[in-house]
Amino acid sequence: IEAGGDGVAFFGGNRRQEWQVTLPTEPTVGLEVETNAAETRLDLAGMRLDEAAVSGNAGDVTIDLADAEVAGVDLSVNAGSMAVILDGAARGALSVNAGSLELCVPESAAMSLEVSENVTFGHNLDEQGLSRSGETWTTAGYAPGPAAIELEVDGNAASLTLNPEGGCR
Fold first, then answer.
1. What is the pLDDT of residues 1-45, one digit of tens each?
2. pLDDT averaged over every residue in the chain
3. Are 152 and 116 in contact (CB under 8 A)?
4. Cα(122)–Cα(135) distance, rounded to whole angstroms?
5. Closest Cα partner for 102 from 155, 49, 141?
6. For site-directed labelling of 92, which of 21, 47, 85, 112 has its Cα 20 to 30 A away?
7. CA-CA distance, 154 to 43, in Å (whole number)?
8. Rg value, the chain, Cα
9. Would you say 110 and 119 are in contact if contact means Cβ atoms under 8 Å apart?
10. β-bridge mates for residue 52, sequence order
11. 121: three-class secondary structure by DSSP
């Protein structure tokens, strides 16, 4: 599905679009979403996904994967913000450039985050009680396995907030 139109309407034009698309929860499907200069809300709760690939550019993206089964995630935001809600196992990559990323997981989640850190990337992983070994941050009691959250995180001129106060939008 692709938005139609001939470009951006500047002075006096109305380019707002609102879509509601219902996807099946069976069988397992793949999902790829690209948004530009948009406010995007993806309610994927209960979905069965081979892969969730979401890219946001110069916008605000919220992805709700509560109760979803996701084999792999590839989520990125550039010059914007992204909030991701996970409550089950997930594997894949998160990338943020010149923006912010919020990640909400249950307190009991077994999680490993391999973080490519540089001086322009900040996070609150130590404040959230994760332990660090090299570039890998883990929750207490983390053990690799099918029920774990295992993500590679890359950030540049950006921030990652794990379980922000008030939750992910």
1. 566 655 555 544 556 666 777 776 677 888 999 999 989 999 998
2. 88
3. yes
4. 13
5. 155
6. 21
7. 24
8. 17
9. no
10. 31, 73
11. strand
